[in-house]
Design goal:
The complex is a heterodimer of chains A (275) and B (156).
Chain A lengths: L3 E12 L2 E8 L12 E6 L3 E6 L10 E6 L3 H8 L5 E8 L16 E7 L3 H18 L3 E7 L8 H9 L3 E6 L2 E2 L5 E2 L16 E6 L2 H14 L6 E4 L15 E2 L2 E2 H4 L2 E3 L3 H7 L4
Parallel strand pairs in A: 7-8, 7-12, 8-9, 9-11, 12-13
Antiparallel strand pairs in A: 1-2, 1-6, 2-5, 3-4, 3-6, 13-16, 14-15
Chain B lengths: L4 H6 L9 H8 L2 E6 L4 E3 L7 E7 L2 E7 L3 E8 L4 E2 L13 E4 L3 E7 H10 L1 H26 L10
Antiparallel strand pairs in B: 1-8, 2-7, 3-6, 3-8, 4-5, 4-7
Helix pairs in contact in B: 3-4
The chains are: A alpha/beta (275), B alpha+beta (156).
């Protein structure tokens, strides 16, 4: 699959090492995608990396990718400026299934738990959920953990979601006394959020240890583990399930993931020690 | 109709599974208190004679580091416990606890509770089990934060 050349049409610094870039195809139409999916982005002459889409399908305009500067490709993407060209292959993988209805068809609570840059792949889902909540009911809870206040991304979105009726709560691992918000592990936010565990689905994205502990805490609270989705990544390369580099147990995560159900084999895989 | 202290205490996870007689014993050591935003619940080094069950508002557990000022280690919210040092000698606070906003709490006299625990070891053991459970949860959360999970990353 050949990369489609896109032009950077917008760039926004989210934190000291996270940048959101907006991409328009040089020719042709914008790619269609579902929240939770990812693209393989090429920094020409350097390489390719899997980057989640952080936009929402309902938002017109360019594709949004939020990138953390952690290696040569992501560094080049973070440094890219308006007018630069980027290759895009995708979209790939599974999504957050936000259109799924509950078994009895009634509205349910959706708890979104994000750690650090993990909010990026969830942003589009939350945009859709908040809009759907306004139109059709169903409560949305957005719980975010970050290293420190300066590392919280999408501050304006978090405020907008709260203004639109979502329950939004934040916590950081460390802070000075000037920070008036919460300090503690993201799981501590679960006990304070007034969702109904028996009628809750959960979407979790962040470091795997964080997802493991969050999923366990939700199950302990009474959330059906079949209603918990997590986003997993390994070494995504081909994006098509051919090369096998992203295999995790029975999954080829570029094809079967990144969004997978926590119940069953994934709960075991998250707890398994790598050999 | 006013809510009795026993009724208030029954709502707290710390009291889960305790008999009504045991909760009444705790209630005998308890009183309602309020703190203005910024007020200290207790200060590092002071005698740890009272702990708090938060009813409303939040408390920040803080420590002062020369050159960096006050650092917030953790925040505690409604339904949660502030303070463990009343339980273990030398009964001295290790950190500051400060009201982040307008705070309402049940203050419990630690010395009173220790005395009742000595008189009634079954009560004391039941109480200790619950306090230890909360300390364990807090310790596990603290260990997780020590991992600096959001700091590690690589390109995938």
């Amino acid at each position: 699959m050949t990369p489609v050349v896109h032009r950077v049409v917008g760039r926004r610094r989210e934190t000291d090492d996270v940048v959101t870039i907006q991409l328009e195809p040089v020719s042709g139409t914008r790619l269609e995608f579902r929240p939770g999916q990812f693209n393989m982005l090429s920094a020409f002459g350097i390489g390719e990396a899997a980057i989640s889409l952080s936009g929402a399908p309902r938002d017109p305009g360019p594709l949004r990718h939020t990138v953390r500067d952690v290696g040569p490709v992501s560094h080049a993407l973070c440094q890219s400026d308006v007018g630069d060209l980027v290759g895009v292959r995708g979209p790939f993988g599974s999504d957050w299934r936000i259109g799924d209805r509950s078994e009895d068809g009634r509205d349910r609570d959706t708890v979104v738990v994000a750690g650090g840059i993990g909010l990026a792949p969830l942003r589009g889902a939350v945009q859709e959920l908040v809009a759907a909540s306004r139109e059709n009911g169903g409560r949305v809870f957005v719980l975010v953990g970050a290293r420190d206040p300066s590392q919280i991304i999408f501050n304006e979105d978090l405020q907008a979601w709260a203004d639109d009726g979502a329950y939004v709560d934040l916590t950081v691992d460390r802070a000075s006394a000037q920070w008036s918000g919460r300090v503690g592990l993201v799981t501590t936010l679960l006990g304070r959020a007034p969702f109904d565990p028996a009628r809750t689905r959960a979407l979790i994205c962040g470091p795997e240890i964080m997802m493991r502990f969050t999923a366990r805490a939700l199950v302990d609270m009474g959330v059906d583990q079949r209603a918990i989705l997590v986003s997993l990544e390994r070494n995504m390369e081909c994006g098509l399930g051919w090369c096998g580099h992203c295999q995790l147990g029975p999954f080829l995560l570029c094809r079967d993931g990144p969004v997978v159900a926590y119940a069953g084999v994934v709960s075991d895989l998250l707890a398994e020690r790598e050999r | 109709m006013t809510t009795s202290m026993t009724q208030l205490l029954e709502a707290y996870p710390l009291m889960n599974g305790l008999s009504s007689d045991a909760i009444a014993l705790v209630a005998g050591c308890a009183r309602n208190v309020a703190f203005e935003p910024g007020a200290l619940l207790f200060a590092e080094g002071a005698s740890a004679d009272t702990f708090y069950l938060l009813r409303r508002g939040h408390a920040a557990i803080e420590v002062h580091e020369p050159g960096r000022g006050q650092l917030v280690i953790e925040t505690i919210g409604p339904g949660e416990v502030v303070g463990w040092s009343w339980l273990i000698e030398p009964y001295r606070w290790t950190f500051d606890a400060r009201a982040q906003d307008s705070l309402g709490a049940i203050a419990i006299d630690g010395a009173c509770l220790r005395a009742k625990s000595l008189d009634d070891p079954a009560f004391g053991y039941a109480l200790l089990q619950r306090v230890a459970g909360q300390i364990l949860a807090r310790l596990q959360a603290t260990r997780m934060r020590l991992l600096d999970l959001y700091g590690e990353a690589n390109e995938r």
